[in-house]
Amino acid sequence: MELCFVRHGIAGEAGAAYPDDRLRPLTAEGTARMREAAAGLATLFRPKVILTSPLVRARQTAAILSEAYPGVPVQETEALAWAALPELCRALNAAGTDAVLAVGHEPHLSAAIGYLVADSERAGVLMKKGAAALVACEAAAMGTGELQWLLQPAALRALGRSRTR
After folding, report:
1. 0.85 exceeded by the pTM?
2. Domain definitions of the chain by residue range
């Protein structure tokens, strides 16, 4: 199984403008950068399903990613927003495929990667907004994964730009 974790793109600042954090959208810059990153990610990974947190910024990121992967279904799951890591693993395994792209938030994604790779949610990685990490495993479970790569958004955007040349 290959699990590609993607942190949502740059979103509006939390605070008075967005009293409900679930509703914070991507900024114009976040949308543009995520499109470039999605083009780069498409050169590295081909999902069979895109799972996303139901929060607006994650759903918008998933929609941008789906443009890079025509025909790949997008499904929402609360497990990518705030679920305990065993519950997130159940949701990833329930996707029923061996190639899952999962869009979510920090620090949840870093904790999930640490949980899968190092048996510890404290052994996470740094995922900037728009970053992607690929974990290979037999099934999503604690300590069963191997981190294949982690690319920050600037690297993904560079890959995307080189693809269009």
Report:
1. yes
2. 2-163
